[in-house]
Every structure is written in C-alpha cells, then in structure tokens.
Design brief:
The complex is a heterodimer of chains A (230) and B (407). Chain A is an alpha/beta fold and 230 residues long. Chain A is 36% helix and 28% strand. Chain A has one domain (3-227): P-loop containing nucleotide triphosphate hydrolases (Rossmann fold), CATH 3.40.50. In chain A, helix 3 packs across helix 4 (118-131) and helix 3 (103-113) packs parallel to helix 5 (147-160). The model of chain A has no long low-confidence stretch (mean pLDDT 90). Chain B has 407 residues and is of the alpha+beta class. Classes of the chains: A alpha/beta (230), B alpha+beta (407).
Chain lengths: 230, 407
C-alpha cells in the first residue's frame, strides 16, 4: 500500500499564551492508503492539533508533513486551501454543514467549487446519499435533519470530491449510540469497498473498538501505535 | 457563479426579522430622500419653466456676438428655412422670434426709456401667455400697427389703451428709428424683470421701426421636456454649424438661476447624506452581526476548500442584495407617490400663492418624475453597501481557519 501521510518529527508550540504550550513534541507518523485509524488520547493530548496539521489547517512549529508527496508545510495559506479542496475530506465534531443549503447542495458544494459538470455532480451526489442512506432527505436543510443524519451528510460531503483521505475530528462526539453505530458502519463500508482512508481523533470507545489502527497520544507524543484486526 | 448568488441570497434571509428591519430602513431612506429630492428637483424644474417660459426660452439662437453686445447690429436674418429647420428638431415645440432693443417712449411732455420687444403675437402668447397679463385694452394681432405697454410705463407717461405712444431710438446700423403707435393694451407685469418699461409690438412693426427687414435678435426655443435640452442644443448647433449663429441654453443665459438652484441643491444633498450616514450605521450593524455570527462557518468553508476570493465575493453579494432589495422596495413605494404629486402638485394658497402669481408663476410644486432622482439614491445606497462589505472582506482576509473553527 502507498504512503499518503508522512509526518516527520513535528512539534507545535503555541506562543500566544503567557506560558508557551507545547501541543506536539516530536511526532512521527506514517499512514498508508486504505487505513482506518483512530488517534486517541485524553483532552489536551494534541489529537486535534495533529489532525489540524495533517489537514493543512494549521502549520507545525518544526518538522514536515508530506501528504500525497507534497510537503504541505511549504505551502502558503491560499495554496493550502486549494490543496485541501483537492486532497482532503473533513468531518467535524459539530457537523458544520452550510445551514442555508440542502443536504444535496451541501454534498455538491465542493464539486461546484471544483467546477465539475452537472451530470457528474448529480451522479456523485446520488451515489453518496444512497451510500449514507439519505436519498429521501436530499432536499432537507440541516436544521430539518437529526444529528446523526447531519453527520452522515457531512461524511458524504467529505467524500464528494474523491479525496485521498478523510480526517474526522471526534465525529461521533455529539451522536447517540444508534447514530454512532450507523455512521461507523457507513465509514467502514466506504473504507472496505472503496478503499477510502479514514483518520479519526476520538475519545469514543465505540470508534476505537472498530478502528484497525489505534494511535495513542499523551502530552504531545505518540505513546502507542496498535494495529488490530477489528 | 450561480452558487455564490444562491449562497448570498439565502444568507441574508438567515435572520428574517433582522433582514426585514434592515430592508425597511433602506426603503424608508429611499422614500424620504427620493421624495424630498423629487420635490426639490420638481421645484427647480418649475423655476426653470417659469423663467424660461416667461422670457428666455429653454434655448436661443442668436447672432454670434449678440449675447456679449446686445445691439441690433448683432441681429440675424430670419429665413423660413431657419425656422422650419429649427422647428423640425426633435422635442422642439415652438421657435419664437424676437427683436429686443431700447427706445425713448414719449407721450405729451413726458418721456421714459423702455425695452422694445418685437414679437410674433401668436407664438409669444403660446410661450409666455402674455394675453393673460392684460389689465386693459386688447391683445395684439399680427397685423396690428399698435403696441402693448407695461402698466408702469403707462402710469409714468399717463397714457392708457387708445392713447398714442411715440418711440425714438437708433435702429440697425445707426439708422434713425422713430414711430407713433396707438396703445392697444396695458399689461400688468409690475413685478417681472421687465417691469420698468416695456413696449410690445409685432415683429414687422419692429423691423420697420428699426430699419432691419427680415432680421431678428433671437429665436427662442420651447421644448417638451427639460431633460431633452442637451439633445436639442446639440442638434440645433449641428444644424447651424455653417452659419454665423450660436445656440445658447438657459443655464448660459441665466447663470444666476443656475447658481441659486445649485446652492439649494447642495443643501438638499447634505440632508440626504446625513440621512444615509444614519442608515449606513444600521446596515453596518446587520453586516457586522452577519460576519461575527458566521466566523466559525467561514473557517469551516475555508477548511473544506473555498478560497478567500470566493468567500469575499459571496459576502460582497450579500451586502449588494441587501441594498438592492431595499432599493427595489423603496422605489416601488416612492415612485407611485412621486407620480401622484407630479400629477397632483402641492399647491400654495394665500399670500404665497399671490406672490407666485404676481411673478407670473404658477403657485405649485410638482415633483420631478425624472428617474435620475431615484437612480442617484440607488447608486448612493449601492456604493454605501459596497463600502460596508469591506468589513467582512477585511475579516476574511485576516481569517485563519483553525482559529475561526476554535471559535
């Protein structure tokens, strides 16, 4: 399998506070295509920071992050936006769908930014909404959907542009057990059938139980890296 | 592009109550400013109509040097071709010829200087409604070998309708000009600019008196709408390009009136600017709230790959839509009102009406239906919205998605 994320000895120190905060202290991490990886650890361990840096939302203080062969720590803010649009799908804890767009339009959004044709967009939206089981809700706005449904739309949105991998920051944190199980089923199915790579940060044991690789972060360092057969 | 329009339009309706409030504010501003400016411009149009209608016309054709040296020597030959060419210009309703000079008027042992106006009685009456100012006697006919005189001249020379007036002057190229005319009527023009002493006679009589056959000193043009003035003047100038004649419009002939209107217009504009400044704070409040409450969303959009320029375009469109919608509602309310007050002008009564009438003016203020009055309000509001949208654009320029998402 090919390496898609190569994190080399990154450190992240926040200096905006009176006392500098060392969020990451020399993290090395390699993730290959097709992985279903959970990054776990207590609050403040650096999970979200690591995910933000891998996703090009934040930059490391030192070290490099190579995604799909591109050293993203060398890209400027505008190049990073384009890079994210083409290479990375995001799923956020609070869903973060665009409230004024319907489920269909939210999924279609990135493809519109990419200038894809209408027929291509329609086919992909249909495929993804069928995949996440929300065809009947395609014309509903986020406020008309439950939390679980919104998160499934967010997953469909993340996958719409066929990214190299999906980063999900605590995707089940606001979901009940049934919605969590449903969402994990969908993501595992996409991972197994389409080979989509998923990287999560999570506290949720239900996610950890189903991950095939579990990285544990403590005080900004990876303290364990366990591959399971889940 | 449709995506950004859709996003922007839906975004402004996220908080319906706030948007309705903002739109009401903009519409009210358009209503107040539009109505006020329409009344102001209507009053100016009426002033110009009164001034031009009473004397100069909206434009005049003259010999090249006449305006600088108003002598009969600077008169010009009035041909049928010139009259028909002028009357054929689009928007010209009438071309009224005149001869204007001075003479010493005498009756018995009394004398007084007077302006002598050679007129076409029919056309002049159409333009200035001169016959309505008769206080005694009858109005002039084209074939009459008689004159109409102002009441002040009549009083000074102690004459009236049926008496005789002697005029002595210098005519075209220095010829002696003298004539004896029966007074056919006395005009009540006490308060007009020509009040001190005026003598009206037919053009053929004036041409004979001043020894200037076929010549006149001016050809005044009456037009259907003031906004067509520039086009009429341009066309007339084009027609006369090979002749030693010039075309002057009323602003050139009545600079005092132009200054008076400009001064008053500036006062009105200051009021409008103050009104819009207040409105600008209201709109800014909405834009500010729309920006602050969507900071996290901006971060997410940037995170998933919407670049800054596209987001800036969307926020700019939001401000423009807000402005345009307010303008549209405002115009839909204001224009019918303006039209109503154009058809049913505000009418003065009592002493104010008497004063207007004394000056030969109608005591009314019709609103101006000139669409530029409302267009200028629309332009102002759009420019203001565009300027105010710089705030979210500034925020987006500085925004780091990770910070915005953290809230």
């Amino acid at each position: 399998m090919s390496l898609i994320i190569d994190v080399n000895n990154i450190e992240k120190t926040y200096t905006e506070t009176a006392v500098p905060v060392h969020a990451l202290r020399g993290v090395d991490l390699q993730i290959e295509a097709g992985e279903f990886t959970a990054i776990v650890g207590p609050s403040g361990s650096g999970k979200s920071t690591l995910l933000n840096i891998i996703g090009g939302l934040d930059v490391p203080s030192t070290g490099s992050v190579v995604v799909n062969g591109t050293d993203i720590s060398q890209l400027n803010a505008n190049q990073l936006i384009d890079f994210r649009q083409k290479n990375i799908g995001f799923v956020f804890q609070a869903y973060n769908l665009i409230p004024v767009l319907t489920a269909k339009e939210n999924v279609e959004f990135i493809m519109l930014l990419q200038g894809r044709s209408k027929s291509e967009r329609d086919a992909r939206v249909k495929e993804l909404l069928e995949e996440v089981g929300l065809m009947d809700k395609m014309d509903n706005r986020p406020t008309q959907l439950s939390g679980g449904q919104q998160q499934r739309v967010a997953v469909a949105r993340a996958l719409a542009s066929k990214p190299s991998f999906v980063l999900a920051d605590e995707p089940t944190a606001n979901l009940d057990s049934k919605s969590t199980a449903n969402l994990l089923d969908i993501m595992l199915k996409l991972n197994q059938e389409e080979g989509m790579t998923f990287v999560f940060s999570t506290h949720d044991q239900r996610v950890i139980d189903r991950a095939r690789r579990v990285l544990t972060l403590e005080d900004g360092k990876i303290v364990s890296d366990i591959k399971t057969k889940a | 592009m449709f995506l950004y329009f859709k996003l922007a339009w839906r975004n402004i309706w996220r908080n319906k109550r706030r948007t309705i409030l903002t739109l009401s504010m903009i519409s009210l501003a358009v209503l107040c400013a539009g109505l006020m400016r329409a009344m102001q411009e209507g009053a100016y149009e009426q002033m110009v109509k009164n001034a031009a209608g009473m004397y100069t016309g909206y434009a005049q054709i003259q010999a090249e040097k006449y305006w600088d040296e108003r002598s009969l020597n600077n008169s010009f030959e009035l041909t049928e071709e010139l009259i028909s060419n002028t009357q054929n210009i689009k928007s010209v309703e009438a071309a009224v010829p005149r001869i204007e000079s001075f003479a010493l008027g005498s009756a018995g042992t009394l004398t007084k200087g007077a302006v002598v106006l050679g007129i076409d009685p029919v056309k002049e009456n159409q333009m200035t409604k001169l016959s309505t100012k008769l206080s005694s006697g009858d109005y002039l006919k084209e074939t009459d070998d008689a004159v109409l005189i102002s009441d002040e001249l009549a009083e000074h020379l102690n004459i009236g309708a049926g008496d005789t007036l002697v005029l002595i002057s210098q005519g075209f190229r220095g010829v002696n000009a003298a004539g004896k005319y029966p007074v056919k009527g006395v005009l009540d023009i006490t308060s007009s600019a020509l009040s001190s002493g005026v003598v009206y006679m037919s053009i053929p009589n004036a041409q004979y008196l001043f020894g200037m056959p076929d010549r006149v000193t001016s050809l005044s043009l009456m037009i259907n709408k003031q906004e067509n003035l520039n086009q009429v003047v341009t066309d007339a100038r084009k027609n006369l390009s090979d002749k030693p004649l010039r075309v002057m419009d009323w602003p050139e002939m009545l600079p005092g009136l132009v200054q008076q209107i400009d001064l008053d217009r500036q006062g009105g504009k200051i009021f409008v600017y103050i009104l819009y400044m207040i409105i600008a704070f209201g709109i800014f409040g909405t834009i500010l709230m729309m920006t602050v409450e969507r900071r996290k969303e901006f971060g997410v959009l940037m995170g998933i790959g919407m670049n800054r320029w596209r987001m800036m375009l969307t926020t700019w469109l939001e401000s423009i839509f807000l402005g345009l919608s307010g303008i549209l509602i405002g115009v839909l309310i204001t224009y019918p009102l303006i039209y109503y007050f154009h058809v049913n002008p505000i009418t003065f009564t009592g002493e104010a009406a008497e004063l207007y009438e004394k000056f030969g003016m109608e005591p009314i203020i019709p609103t101006s239906t000139n669409i530029s009055v409302l267009l200028s309000q629309a332009t102002l509001i759009l420019a203001m919205c565009s300027l105010l949208s710089m705030y979210p654009i500034y925020v987006l320029r500085k925004l780091r998605p990770v910070d915005a998402m953290r809230g």
